[in-house]
Write a structure and sequence with these properties.
111 residues, 0% strand, mainly alpha, single chain
């Protein structure tokens, strides 16, 4: 990973609102090392480990949430499909009963 790519990652991570003490400390340490020009391979590796430990659980949580949302959307789509079908049946019943009532009204006026 180039120095520029590493610095970009540090900046990207720094944009997050991090509350975890270990991750905040790792961020502060690496930002200071970059600023001073003393960021060596060991410091970079320690920072990358900290980032992985911090973000990996969030990724798992987000994937779990996405699966849950997808499942709920699938259910909602099925409900919409079923309600649309029920609506179609209700419209046909209204049309059929209106036809019968219209015929009834016509016959009542002629009798």
């Amino acid at each position: 990973m180039s120095e520029d790519a590493f610095a970009a990652l540090v900046a990207r991570v720094g944009a997050f609102h991090v509350t975890d003490r270990a991750m905040k400390n790792a961020q502060t340490v690496v930002e200071e090392a970059i600023r001073k020009g003393t960021c060596d391979d060991r410091a970079r590796a320690a920072y990358l480990d900290a980032v992985r430990r911090y973000f990996k659980p969030f990724e798992r949580e987000a994937r779990t949430h996405l699966r849950d949302v997808d499942r709920r959307l699938e259910h909602a789509n099925q409900v919409v499909f079923n309600l649309t079908a029920e609506r179609g049946v209700a419209v046909k019943r209204i049309e059929a009963t209106q036809g019968v009532l219209a015929d009834l009204a016509t016959l009542e006026h002629t009798v």
